[in-house]
Amino acid sequence: MYKKLEIIERAILLNPQYIQAFREKLKITQSKLAKESGISQSHLSMLEKGKRPATKLIATAVTLGLLKCFSSNNVENPIIELLDALSLLKFEDTFAEFVSEIIEKGDKGYLRLIENYPVLIISKENLLNEMRSRLEVMDIERIELSRGRIKVIGKHLDNKYVEIFLDCSDIRRLEKKFMKKTGKKVIIQVFPKDEVPPIYSINKDCVIIHCW
Predict the structure, then answer these.
(1) Which residues pair with 149 in a beta bridge?
(2) C-alpha span between 167 and 149 (Å, rounded)
(3) Among residues 127, 111, 153, 135, which one has the least CA distance to residue 205?
């Protein structure tokens, strides 16, 4: 249990913006977390916006505050939910890094011009292979793509199964991360192979990223 708490604490220390995602995962208000963490709400707000760095003391206080807010006797439950949320955020960050590299290198294995605009087409197989090699917080076993949705199945470092889902709101957040990373406007589409529009000339489950 303590090892898992250290993972969450370190994530908050390095990326205090994750606090908001953790709150949303456990359905905790900012004011409630501030009270249980023993820090002011304005300070917490600045951390979530990335306007103040986190210290180890603050990261520890927020981690314990998240657990205190969770109204359950089973302490493993909120920790697992936090690890699931962390896996989702790390997946998004890693995916954004991958896309940024494609654009910087002009990788023609993924880049196409459609009506003179650049489009990235990433098959499910390529996405799976890249994420397996890059993501450290979980071992990915498979990825499933449906219309507008990404599902990732794997295991945490303690061999417990985890499923993370990127739905419309998560994909919008992912678009913002892509835009921040690449400096370009981005729209992400997710298709199973039988719903891919013919203009893309691919008969596979894929993620299609318009960037301009």
Answers:
(1) 146
(2) 5
(3) 127
* Cα–Cα distance, 25 to 87 (Å, whole number): 12
CA distance 178 to 57: 31
3-state secondary structure of 41: helix
Per-residue confidence (pLDDT) for residue 75, from 0 to 100: 53
Phi, psi of 24 (to 5 degrees): -65, -35
Whole-angstrom CA distances from 96 to 106, 140, 182 are 15, 17, 9
Q: Which residue is listed with tokens 């949705």?
A: 149
Q: What is the CA radius of gyration of the chain?
A: 19
User: CA-to-CA distance for 121 and 201, rounded, in angstroms?
Assistant: 10
Give the containing element (helix H, strand E) for 5: helix 2-14
Task: Give the whole-angstrom CA distance, residue 86 versus residue 22.
Answer: 8
Q: Which has the closest alpha carbon to 95: 134, 152, 151?
A: 134
pLDDT digits (tens, 9 = 90+) for 19-36: 998 888 778 899 999 999
H/E stretch holding 112 reads: strand 111-114
pLDDT at 1: 67
pLDDT digits (tens, 9 = 90+) for 174-200: 999 999 888 999 999 999 999 999 999
